[in-house]
Fold this sequence. Notes:
Helix content: 55-70%
Oligomer: single chain
Largest sheet: 4 strands, antiparallel
Radius of gyration: 19 Å
Number of strands: 6
Shape: elongated
Order of helices and strands: EHHEHHHEEEE
Amino acid sequence: MSNAISLTGEAAEVALGEAQAVLAMVQNDARRARLADLIAAVGEGEVADDDAEALAELLELGLQTGRLRSVYGPGGEQAALRLFRKLPRGKELSASAQDVSAALSSLVGKELESARIDATGPGSFVVSLAVDGRELSVRLDRNGVRLASVGL
């Protein structure tokens, strides 16, 4: 596995426990097979490609709903979060947040003219800031945070 992500300790325990718990509830054969593949990969101590994607989906759901904290405690939740950040989906979210932070940092020291938050749908928001004649809009939703527009 060339792009494999190593799983050890508490992160491996949480990943395995969650995959097994979901497998016990899933009826769809394709999903069961995908989860069985994930369980095998976690058992081998590393995930890559499709298994990494399946693991990211599993961890994301558990982190968003609070299940990981309630079942595995704060330590398990933190281990899962560290693991999620190593997976491609977690890396994408981190990179997106860094890009938005860089754009926002360009506004430091400037005069804020207006700030607005618009709800664009369930769990989806756009934050718009007008600074020194420029407007910057940031979208926040379940897909992460990203620049929606930059106007001069």
